[in-house]
Amino acid sequence: MGLLLPLKSLLLAILRLLKGKPVVKELAASAGVQAKRVGGIERGVVKNVLAEELERIFTSMACSEAEVVIVASCLEALGDLDPQADPAEAAAQEQFVAALGRDLRHRMRGPVVVESREYPAPHEIEPDRAEARDAWAMLSEVKTLREMVLVVRVAREHHRWALVERLCDESERAASKDAGRARDLAFAAVTIARRLRVRKGWRRRLLGFAVAHLANALRVAGHLVRAERMLAAARRLWETGEDPDQLLDPGRLLDLEGSLRRAQRRFGEALDLLEQAAVLTRRTEHVSLKTASTLAVMGEYHRAIRLLTQVAPLVERHPEARFRSIHRFNLAVALTHVGRPREAAGLLPALRRLVEGDELDRIRLRWLEGRIAAGLGQTGPALKALEEARGRFAKKGLHYDVALSLLETAALHLERGELAEVQALTGELAPIFEENGVHEEALKALRLFEEAAARQAVTVELVRRLLAWLFRAQHDPGLVFDPDQEPGVHLGLPEGSRMQPSSILGPGSGEVRKVQI
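Below the sequence we write its predicted structure tokens.
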């Protein structure tokens, strides 16, 4: 907390003075607690303070719940202040807290409604979700975890089940680009779920839902062991909780566990979990895209295409343009992956309209245009597009994606017998070898390419194998490179050539472009 005494000690001391109870013995006698223990709690020497003890003490002082909450929230907020913050950050923090205080005082003058229902009635569900949308409009402007936790602790009128649900959805959405933001939103959902005044079983189900999304944020950040433990805790809460009307998506935990199993390279288990989730979930299109990405990591590209085609009508009705662009992009890359660039080209006009607002998506689209051009035999435009994409990936520090684009370019030069151009490309590998984000097995494969180019021994077949392996290893770091294994994928070369374009999970994709669907 950063406080001299534990929060409970300060809380007791402040409320005792506030309520005019200067004599500890009298207070202890009225609460039915030993005076020595009350004094020990206040001095911070009693470690195992029971909640029921504090409740009896506060009741004996005639403290209202609002008084306890306000004082506790202020103490928690003080503990969250960063004494090491630089002057600019400290000034911004001061302004935020001042604005929050004004808003809180304004709200306290009017009626404050705190959710205290056992379980929402059918006619209350949609109004609750509408209120959650309004609350999210305010919370979405809060940028740091410290500020967000302060808001959700103080603004108890927003302590509603629907806001827990909304924060979890936003956490999953944020994970596509910012694991830290995803964690903060999920933590805020957990904070609210713990404080809801609803029946125990419903609160446990809500808490399990929120904790599962916190585990998902840990997975995205690469903390797989911690994510495993947290998801197990979420599952226990979920299974011992209750949600008779299934207000929360009943397939969500299976969906998130499927993502974790995929990250752990337990692909068979991932597919089984996603299959179970697809039966229960209200987000069939999300689960289907995740299943398709898992199939792609496994090298099952034809199955991925069939699933993406099957789910297309649902995706087209999805309200988010970003979701529709992910589906079309993955389908286009999948089609090039199995040598069907003309069909992929047919998806480009819609993709160009859908990705206008996202810089990284535009880079990925340029990369895809290069691959499709190569598949159609348009080598000049393909080289230009791949070079542009490679340069823009490099500026963003996406070195794995630079390597993929570089090898695709090398394959095109080799196909034209331009070995000198291939050797020149190896000069771009140095930053990649120094980048911590590229795993060791991938670096070994790239060194093999570099050494072969230096000896003038690099071949189209070697590049083909390297590129095919790298596309899978990007999402499966434990995959070991075997230079003698048939890759079973295509590179971006003309139709009729012995090589065709590749990869459903293209550069910059992370996990289907790091989208946590």
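Confidence is low (pLDDT under 50) at residues 1-5, 109-114, 486-517.
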